[in-house]
Amino acid sequence: MGFTFDLNEAEQFDEKDVLAAFRDEFYIKKGQYYLDGNSLGLLSKKAEQAVMDLLGSWRKYGIEGWMEGEHPWFTLSESLGDKTAPLIGAKPSEVIVTGSITVNLHQMLSTFYQPEGKRTKIAADELNFPSDIYALQSQISLKGLNPEEQLIKAASEDGVTLTVEDIDRVCTDEVAVLLLPSVLYRSGQLLPIKEITKRAHEKGILVGFDLAHSIGAVPHQLHDWGVDFAVWCNYKYMNNGPGGTGGLYIHEKHHDHMPGLKGWFGSDKEKQFDMAHTFTKADGAGAYQIGTPNILSTAPLIGSLALFEEAGIEKLREKSLHQTGYIAAFVEKELQQFGMKKVTPSADEDRGGHIALQHPYAAGICKAMKAEGIIPDFRAPDIIRLAPAAFYTSYKDLYEAMQLIRRIMKEETYKHYSNERNVIA
To answer: Which cofactor(s) does the record list (predicted)?
Structure first.
């Protein structure tokens, strides 16, 4: 991209940044360079206000808050699902804000994984996040089958990325469901969702994606691509707060499926309080809710989604690509000489919202970064993840952070720290 990596360049980028004003919407600690938005997004003023407003509705209305106030709790999950849908290219009826990634994944698998005949296997990948694998293993066991036999994983040739061919090899005629991450959490590789879905469907396989590392950073077209289901959290790029309520998508062609895990908030809203022991499912994605919504853990999303609507996901993606491109180019020009290797693919279409760097002393380097006010993210055994957030990362901050990292590597100050991860990495 022809970066010069000087202060004047960074200041010019900031002057031209159409999203620069959004930085003032977030609480950013003075003297800190926050590059961990792919793990936990920062608090925005709008999200904070939304929490206070929902607390206020509890204070003002008591139980009547389920139907009264600006954001009635009874339909909050559906209304926020409507607002989330444009970020992933879905119809409003296909999205619901509910649960967590793992709970929602259990719901989707209990609904779609119905081993029959020779199609008894689930295909995933060996680089997937452990919690997703645990859910797959659990669902196979609940069907009375052996996970060691029925869960097959696409192998990575380089240990950090996957090719379509790697995935194709596990998509046999014995596979019922394929589950993959949209972005590999370690390397930041963005998988070609459209192509993977098309190939799997041609083989009669249902396809689901974990969007944890793409929603809010990468626009998708899940409905048009025919993706069968997806799950995600909202506390990374969506800035919904620690443990904030997640979401799920289910293509409208599957809305006739009875939820594998029934719960009363999956009921038709008109019949939910009939208290009948016969389940009447809601029409759309709302049918796949299980329990009562976590209102206070959902509240920040009201404010966060307002910011997304104002900024536009395409503009956020454009800035994200430019800033991760800046980091990647700096690494290749200034940091490779110190043994730091970029493992994130270089092409824009293959990159999510973060850059992953590999170094034998990665844990110690992360500690040295934190001592300088840089907040990175470590993933065992040797990965450093850096994620500029388009909403609040300025180019000046990015310039200063990268200069500090260069100094850390050149002076080897990281050797003053143990190369062991903290309890939370």
So the answer is: pyridoxal 5'-phosphate
